[in-house]
Amino acid sequence: MPVHHAAFKQIKKDKKRTLRNKAVKSEIKTWVKKFEALIAEKKFEEARTYLRQLTSKITKAKSKGIIHANTARRRVSRLTKKLNKAGPPSPKKT
User: Fold this and answer.
1) Which of 2, 34, 58, 84 could be stapled to 7 by a disulfide with Cβ–Cβ 3.0 to 4.6 Å?
2) Which pLDDT tens digit goes with each residue over 23-82?
3) CA dihedral 42, 59, 30, 47 (to 10 degrees)
4) Residue 61 in 3-state DSSP?
5) How many CB atoms lie within 10 A of CB 43?
6) What angle (nearest 5°) sits at the alpha carbon of residue 35, between those of residues 16 and 41?
7) What is the dihedral angle through the alpha carbons of 18, 64, 66, 36, rounded to the nearest 10 degrees?
8) How far apart are CA 33 and CA 38, in angstroms?
9) What's the pLDDT score for residue 15?
10) Separation between Cα atoms, residue 34 and residue 26, nearest integer Å
11) Rounded Cα gap, residues 57 and 13, in angstroms
C-alpha cells in the first residue's frame, strides 16, 4: 500500500484513466466491426461515411494519448485500403 497522500491520489487518477481508455478502445473496436460488416454487406457508400467518422474517433484517441500515433495511422490506412479494395472507387469531386 502507498504511504504518501499523493500516491493514493495517483492510484485514483490511474483507475479513472484506465476506465476511460478502455471505454474508448472498446468503442473503436465496435466501430471497426460495424465498418467491416458494412463492407461485407456491400454497402460501400455507408461504409465510406462510416470510415470518415471512425477515422475521426481514432485520431481523437491518438491526440489524447490513448493509442500510439503510429498505431492510429496504421489502423486508418488498413481500413481505407480494405474499403478501396472491396468496393467501387469513390466518386470524384470536380
Assistant:
1) 2
2) 999 999 999 999 999 999 999 999 999 999 999 999 999 999 999 999 999 999 999 999
3) -10
4) helix
5) 13
6) 150
7) 120
8) 9
9) 96
10) 13
11) 23
